[in-house]
Amino acid sequence: MDEHRPVFALNLFDIADRDEYTAYSRRSAREVAAHGGRVVALGKFREALKGEVAPRSVMILVEWDSIGSFRSYLEDPALADLHPHRERGGGNYIWHLFDRIDDLRPLLKA
Questions:
Q1: Residues 67-88: pLDDT tens digits?
Q2: Least buried of 27, 40, 90, 109, by fewest C-beta within 10 Å?
Q3: Is residue 11 a contact partner of residue 93, using CB atoms and an 8 Å limit?
Q4: Taking 60 as the threshold, does the pLDDT of residue 1 lie above it?
Q5: Residue 41 burial by CB count (10 A; 0-12/13-18/19+): exposed, middle or buried?
């Protein structure tokens, strides 16, 4: 896919340490926005309907302007003290990236 198209980052995780994740969340929204990200949805687990992934208690969906924006957030040296709070605060992390598409037709073509 085009490196300049928006991507979604799906974060599924449990809270491992409330103080650590609180320290991360106090600053992360501002930093995500500064790097071209926008939190699209926050969710608390309700129920598992189907699938083999063990449930996680928290879901966050972030839309990034591009994969470059996402990488700049992860690699910014000014944020080196921020990311460890996320890592210590969240457990059982699943972090998947999805290219944004306008519809499913490209995926359904043979």
A1: 999 999 999 999 999 999 999 9
A2: 109
A3: yes
A4: no
A5: exposed
* Dihedral angle over CA of 70, 74, 76, 81, nearest 10: 140
What average pLDDT does this structure show over 90-103? 93
Query: Which CATH number, 3.40.50.150, 3.30.70.100, 3.40.640.10, 3.40.50.2000, labels domain 7-102?
Result: 3.30.70.100
Residue boundaries of the structural domains of the chain: 7-102
Question: For 86-96, how does the pLDDT look when each residue is reduced to its tens digit (9 = 90+)?
Answer: 999 999 999 99
Please answer whether residues 8 and 50 qualify as being in contact, where contact means their C-beta atoms are separated by less than 8 angstroms: no
Please, what is the Cα angle at 86 between 94 and 14, to 5 degrees? 50
